[in-house]
Amino acid sequence: MELEGLVRNVGTHAGGVLIAPSKISDFCPIYKGPSESDGVVSQFDMKDVEALGLVKFDFLGLSNLTVIDKTVKLIYAKGLSDELIDIDTLPLDDKAVYKLLQRCDTTGIFQLESEGMRGYLKKLQADSFEDIVAMLALYRPGPLGAGMVDDYINVKHGTQQVKYPHPMLEEILKPTNGVFLYQEQVMKSAQVMAGYSLGGADLLRRAMGKKIASEMEKQRDVFVKGAADREINEKKANEIFDLIDKFSGYGFNKSHSVAYAYISYQTAWLKAHYPAAFMASVLSGMMDDTDRIAFTVSEVQAMGLIVTGPSIDESSYEFSIQDDKTITYGLGAIKGVGEALVEALVVERKANGNYQDLFDFCARIERKSLNQRAIKALIYSGALDGFGIDRASLIKTYPNAVRQAEQRQNDLSSGQSGLFTDAQVYSEYEAHYLSCPSFSFKETLQFEKGVMGYYFYNHPTDEYKDDLKHIAATLPKDLVFRNNKEVRILALISELRYRATRSGGQMALITIEDGSRLLNAVVFSKVLGSVSDKLIADTVVVISGKVNKDFRDQWQVVIDKIEGIDEVKMKYARSFEISLSDKHQPLFAKLSDVLKQNQGQCPVKLCYQVNDSKGEVLLTKDYFVIPNQQLIDTVDTLLGDRVSKINYC
Prior knowledge:
By secondary structure, this protein is of the alpha+beta class.
């Protein structure tokens, strides 16, 4: 058929650039790509242009290069360095860099962030640039599966003796602790042992890479004959050829590994010396990924740096820094807040100073940039907290502020004098905020997470940490990881998914967190039935189980039991305490009714204060209650203050 063998469709390589001694059209047909950015494109594929003798370079666009550029600009902008930072001529023996790698503080470091890589870095304890180069080449499926990483590390630390296949290869393999790792080592070995030319060694490398049996047999003959000329017997020559052939499948281009390792080193150097500027730039590179932002912010805080919340008087679109210890949240990381609005508010702020209140803010932003959805998101995120007005009041008031601002801008643009054009009257109207009940702690968190993607200021577990600190551990400090250690953890179930088992049952994979740390957990089928009613996303629970490592060598909790917060409160409650004073006396009868309506097994203690005198009364069993959050909320609402709490064993 005429259609057979024809190209079905065309595509353009993302970073492939052809280089020719004259016009490309002298060597191959070309066409204009479908998009403006494609430019002129060869009609031949990579194999055809290679056969023509053209050179193809792949230019890789790495986001880390943008991070490096932004970091250096932030350093200069904030005057953190008086010296010129030449990122391309850094000394490769900086002790601060290697200390950072040795303690596995690699969040944001190119190619070194993964949990598995951190595990090997901890074992490696890199102290030279060559170690970084080798680690990037080793951390791939082939070398990992062959145990080459462990060999390299063990030889480095002297726990394993290096063995060279032949004395002639010692100089070639010594930099990689006796391991064939780089393609260049394969080529050099062929030159030294069998007299290959550079071109011939490259042909050997290609033949090994393509695994063409007939070509490999030809190369074996060449290798064995060349080795014989150097007084290496046929058996040994074949052994070494087999060894080279085996490891050539894992062989990595050293120049590639060095280039990547240098970017790793550059990012590590910036993090070691300018941590705030570097991490701010890293965060700016993940503005659309709130999960990564949440993890990175927790890592930044663990480094001892401060991340201040979003603020219309301090923030820019991207993350920025106030000094060498403080990062300011980027407004662009808030859902629903566009770049146009942020740019407009930053330009206005720089020109005329900080915003005085909600009405001033709305009035000073041009109508085309004014977006009610964005203003609502800014309020929920805390970006307007600097006004000192309750968020609930801001939410209720902002539509009026927007309408007033639009009316004022219409009047000014038309040259008409509106009702509120007079500055004094306008100012008085601005000061009027609508009153309403404040958001509850849970509502505040819910709205905050809705626009920020995670809990930034507070966390749902914060409400219970103090009360339950002697009953359940939190993730960051109290939980010491040790294999098969039994733990009881206070945490939020943030992610939940189910998976079928080989036996036809079902297991649950969950992610738990407490605002400072994330941890994987698993519920196997034999336990799932007893805890399924507690497996609800975005619920705070107390988890009991054992800590061990999963198949990825990452820590996880194997869950044996899950308890709800109210269940734990009732189990460990010692007393339900209410603090009273004279002003509460008219409400005593209603309080009595509330307590009787919630009868249980927990004693009730009244702490009464009159002037400077205090007294405690333990109520009779008729007033014993079920201690839970609902009762706390009911009593506090009745008495108008936060006066009740649960005391625990």
